[in-house]
Specification:
Length: 244
């Protein structure tokens, strides 16, 4: 911590919280601790890490954090595992909101979620004018976000009386950015993925064009403050070329 240059701290950090199920498998309490129950234990351990992690972000002067909690691909899981995961996500959002420390915003294709969770996420309201802005990416896919942004752009163009030719002529990077789930927020300078996997999987596909990546071997429930500080240190030592 003493060796970090906080003038080089990324303003927006995205995190792929990976490895919950593998953590549960590696930490089985007994031979009967398998299947959905074991998977849920991993997801609960991962959820418990989030508040601790956001505290580290506050200490490090990070302003925006995007946490990938549920991908659109996760809907391919068994109904039993998906239902358990959605319940944990709902409890996690409640716990984050109850702290009163951060503004929580849900980003993703919320219409794919069950009504009880969609209503909970839709009703999240800003409560602070300071502190870390926390995006919880739920039912999120990078390609889906871009498609939704273009659809919203075209709907807005139609509502303002522009025909398809005019709308296509005016379509550009800045216009699409206005309709992303994270519109109005800075793009992430740093994206962290835990569990040793070295791929983005579509996370913040549009926004991460110029991001720096940091891959950590630890499963998300085992992610430590020193791992986070190492990620910040690695970021601060990089010479960002911004695509040039």
């Amino acid at each position: 911590m003493r060796g970090l240059d906080f003038s080089q701290t990324p303003h927006h950090v995205g995190v792929i919280l990976d490895g919950n199920r593998r953590w549960a498998k590696a930490n089985q309490l007994d031979s009967s601790d398998v299947g959905v129950a074991n998977s849920s234990r991993g997801h609960k351990a991962g959820a418990e890490k989030i508040i601790e992690f956001l505290g580290w972000c506050e200490q490090s002067q990070v302003r925006v954090v995007t946490l990938w909690l549920l991908s659109t691909d996760n809907f391919k899981r068994t109904p039993e595992e998906l239902d358990a995961l959605l319940k944990i996500i709902g409890d996690t959002v409640d716990a984050l909101a109850a702290t009163g420390r951060w503004n929580i915003k849900a980003v993703g294709a919320l219409e794919l979620l069950p009504e009880w969770l969609r209503e909970k996420l839709t009703n999240l309201k800003p409560t602070r004018s300071d502190g870390v802005e926390v995006n919880v990416a739920i039912s999120y896919g990078g390609r889906r976000e871009i498609v939704d942004a273009v659809k919203s752009y075209l709907a807005d163009a139609d509502a303002h009386g522009r025909d398809l030719h005019e709308a296509s002529e005016q379509l550009n990077i800045e216009e699409v950015s206005k309709f992303l789930y994270t519109a109005g927020q800075p793009d992430p300078e740093l994206i962290i993925r835990t569990s040793g996997e070295q791929r983005l999987g579509g996370f913040l596909l549009w926004q991460s064009a110029l991001s720096e990546y940091y891959f950590c071997e630890a499963y998300w429930p085992d992610f430590r403050r020193v791992d986070f500080l190492r990620a910040l240190r690695a970021y601060s030592l990089r010479h960002r070329r911004f695509g040039s």
